Amino acid sequence: MSVLGRAFSVLDAFADGTPSLRLTAIAERSALPLPTALRLVRELVAWGGLERQSDGSYRLGSRLWTLGGQAPCRRRLVETGRPVLDRLNRTTGLPVLLAALDGIRFVVVDGVGSTLRPGTMLPPHATAAGKVLLAYLPDSRRRQVLADLVRLTPYTLTAPGPLDRQLATIRAGAPASAWEEWRLGENEVAVPVDPFAAQGPAAALTVTARSAAQARRAVPLVARAALTISGSLRPAGQATACAARADAAGEPR
Amino acid sequence: MSVLGRAFSVLDAFADGTPSLRLTAIAERSALPLPTALRLVRELVAWGGLERQSDGSYRLGSRLWTLGGQAPCRRRLVETGRPVLDRLNRTTGLPVLLAALDGIRFVVVDGVGSTLRPGTMLPPHATAAGKVLLAYLPDSRRRQVLADLVRLTPYTLTAPGPLDRQLATIRAGAPASAWEEWRLGENEVAVPVDPFAAQGPAAALTVTARSAAQARRAVPLVARAALTISGSLRPAGQATACAARADAAGEPR
DNA sequence: GACCAGCTTTCATCCTGTGAAAGTGGGAGT
DNA sequence: ACTCCCACTTTCACAGGATGAAAGCTGGTC
């Protein structure tokens, strides 16, 4: 692994949302010897990617915020999606989320009425949005995910077979759903945004309800909202989906 | 300069808001030989900090967006500031901006009703918000800025003396103003958010108007809004301002 | 007062990043 | 059709920067 790779794994130590970490914790999470972690952390601080707090711990820095906010693919998605999310939240009265693929992770991109903040990671197999994105993943990666289905509630699907059948129906155009498979009391439905893009859908639009019936009732509205987003995403340029990165576990090409 | 430094200057090539750059442009902006730039860019792409587009050019990637969105100091500022900006925009009918220091740059953090997007850089000496932040900068850095005052309109203050006197009144508690000093037809007033923090104010709150009179009339509302933000920022923790980074051109310690 | 954890510094070793130079490929010009 | 040119990519011998074990700090705790 190169120097840069190490530095990135230092940053990735914060990816799960931990607001602040001490040096030792960073070193541990990124599997680096302490002096190495220290050197990297210092360079990151000098740049502004990390900040040192008065108690000696570190947190992600403002420079990272400024740069990250400029990422065109996500910015467009949020800017075009936001008004639609707002309306969908008002018409359904339910928390609304927009989720997308980030490398190999599934993350919340934006939300209205939900407690989940942008950047939160979602379990691929146990959320409706996760299933949508999973359905359109290239075979090899999808199989990777299906190989390790963690039980999160009594209702989580942990058998690859049934889940894969659900994914097939999603690809065929059915809305995705997850009935208390991630958290008890949360029933979600989700549909893809721009499902016919070459790279797969740009995002998944999802609502959460107390009951499955309530969630089902929202499906038409969610589907229409997703179409609206797809529509305003398409015309202004091909730069829709964030390019899938060619990562280590990637496919040929 | 270390490897990391080089990689950061590659990312910084996008800091001015350029949505996409070709390899050659990146190499030029970051003053790196082409093969070096290529190697760094590739590693950044593999991580997700950059993305390669179909035409071969690069843009900031989604991984950067996800990470950056987690930066605690900025997130808190935006989350607590947003409702106040909304209200201020409604009561004044004017575009509202929240700006802060990012390393050595002055950037827009959030806005309502303005065309300036978060991440946009502001000229320190020719905007009201810039003057507020400049006023509270440590002496050495302030002098650095005062030494190079670029003329942007016929009304831009390019003499250090008068500007420095304005900064003194701002430190004394007066609202900052800029009358068409950045762009013709734009008159701004600004006040600090949390001006008594150890590190200087967390941000500057500013409104823009067609006429100076209109801007002046808004001052009390802006000041009250800034107090509201300061108030909700303070209690929940000391993590208010983003730590000023110890950069190359920095002071002792 | 001794111990410990968490952090920082040092330094000899060596591996990784470096960039000049040469190679590739596609598009424009004639 | 041929050539030129530009943007990008690959190669490779070299050098300098990164490495991490070991040894010092510091402040808190028993």
UniProtKB/TrEMBL annotation, chains A, B:
Domain IclR-ED: residue ranges: 63-235
**According to the lineage, what is the superkingdom?**
Bacteria
Q: What are the residue boundaries of the HTH iclR-type domain, all occurrences included?
A: 1-62
Query: What organism does this protein naturally occur in?
Result: Frankia canadensis
Which BP terms in the Gene Ontology apply to this protein? negative regulation of DNA-templated transcription
Q: Which GO terms describe its molecular function?
A: DNA binding; DNA-binding transcription factor activity
Keywords of this entry: DNA-binding, Transcription, Transcription regulation
* Protein name per Swiss-Prot or TrEMBL: Transcriptional regulator
| Tagged with keyword Cell division | no
| PROSITE patterns, per the entry | HTH_ICLR (PS51077), ICLR_ED (PS51078)
